[in-house]
């Protein structure tokens, strides 16, 4: 939903009603998770979890270590195949698809430990990210006319890469090998690389872990900038101040199950959450 539309509409479940009560517009969430389950032997890591992520929002997913957050991310993005339940993205059932197939549909993720290509430069990491590049084809690389098309595409791609590097303020690192970056710089690189795939929804797995306060502030600013451009985010983060300050909705997992869901104010006043996750303190 665009910023303008968001200001004139009220979400009601999966329906959006405008100021004109006679007009009701269907607005299914871009990401819907229903009764998701994942087992590892006798251990149930994710146990019947259901939630929606609505367009243009920053939704937080929290819970103690072992709550099943990262496993849920892995099931949503194809790293693991769920044992039960469904994942719908933009109205399509993507349950069990390969990670690259899910990414090509516009649902991408970052990892708690950044997975950059260490022996390639920052620039090269971003150049590789978009799928379907014509230069990957042998025929395109040997035919003169096709080569000109590939060269034009590469020029356009390089412009996009530089725009992205400048947006994240890491353009000065373009020629640096990814393996030489600091932890915070790697997080910026990973999010930059995710953005190069033209996603609709981005899943962030602890993007602020190991990031110094200066880079943390920069990363959060960029996430909010991207939301204003229409991107949607689902964020796993242990820093409760970040979650409660920056997210509109918060989903709480505990022992593989969804314990609660609501606004930050609702979550911080939820007795079950306080007892199970916050240790009796808000």
Automatic annotation (TrEMBL):
Keyword tags: ATP-binding, Nucleotide-binding, Transport
GO molecular function, a single term: ATP binding
SMART domains xrefs: AAA (SM00382)
Pfam family, one: ABC_tran
Record keyword Kinase present: no
Cross-referenced InterPro entries: AAA+_ATPase, ABC_AA/LPS_Transport, ABC_transporter-like_ATP-bd, ABC_transporter-like_CS, BCA_ABC_TP_C, P-loop_NTPase
Region (Disordered): 1-31
Designated name of the protein: ABC transporter ATP-binding protein
Species this chain originates from: Natronoglomus mannanivorans
